[in-house]
Amino acid sequence: MTLKKKLIAAAFALSALASSLALAACPDHYVDGKAPEFRNQKLAVNTQELCYGVFGIMHSGVTRTPLWAAEHLTADNVEQARDLDRENSFHPEERLPRQHRAELSDYARSGFDRGHMAPNGDMPDRQSQRESFTLANMVPQDGDNNRHVWAGIEQAVRKLAKKEGDLYVITGPAFLGTDLRKIGNVLVPSHLYKVVYSPRQRAGGAYFVENQPDVQYVTMTVAELEQKIGINLLPSLTPQQKQTMLKLPTAKPRKR
Fold first, then answer.
1. Beta carbons of 238 and 190 less than 8 angstroms apart
2. Domain limits at 82?
3. Is the distance from CB of 170 to CB of 68 less than 8 angstroms?
4. Sign of torsion, CA 28 173 201 83?
5. How many domains does the chain divide into?
6. Predicted structure pTM score
7. How confident is the model over 76-127, as pLDDT tens digits?
8. Burial environment of residue 209 by CB neighbours within 10 A (0 to 12, 13 to 18, 19 or more)
9. Cα angle for residues 216, 219, 221 (degrees, 5° grid)
10. In a domain? residue 256
11. Does 72 qualify as catalytic in the annotation?
12. Candidates 100, 116, 148, 191; catalytic one
């Protein structure tokens, strides 16, 4: 092997090592400490993991959104969050390079909400709440969708967390099809998903909804969702476990 080829091989090895270390940066937020893995390698371009107090994000510099936000959602956190009034503090993520991050100006007058992936309503204290308002945790979301059907899904998951004691939750956007649009420099997702895994029942399931007004969500197995979006969301589970469907609570849309 020539010196040039050896250097290239070493560079790839270092890149792979750095990637694996990044994926392990926030183990507390993931089932068995294992973060999702990309099956569609196009999604992995310009990604950076960001760790926060009660959630972790894999951010894409291509879409300028998270590709997922992961939480270990406990009943205690849900209970504490109930007593915390909302303080909006949307802000760009300073840890990201300017050329890869969303800015407030991207969303201004866009007609889209800044939709939380790790919800403000899950945050147990002021520090966590402020962290949840980073634009690295936001996607352009249809306003009607965000405030009604999606709000109902978030509330249903919180109720399930109180019942189960704790859940692992992974929330993210899906960019399906070729007819995608942008607001500023930020790509608008076609769909949104929320994966819920119960350690007590050793089963998971997913809500999946189009990013449109006045739509109905569907539920599916983790395996079905992974096939749709090209991400191995729960890598520590076997294929059979991913086919085992957790009975998800009915999510009632918030009233208009």
1. no
2. 28-243
3. yes
4. positive
5. 1
6. 0.90
7. 999 999 988 888 899 999 999 999 999 999 999 999 999 999 999 999 999 9
8. buried
9. 160
10. no
11. no
12. 116
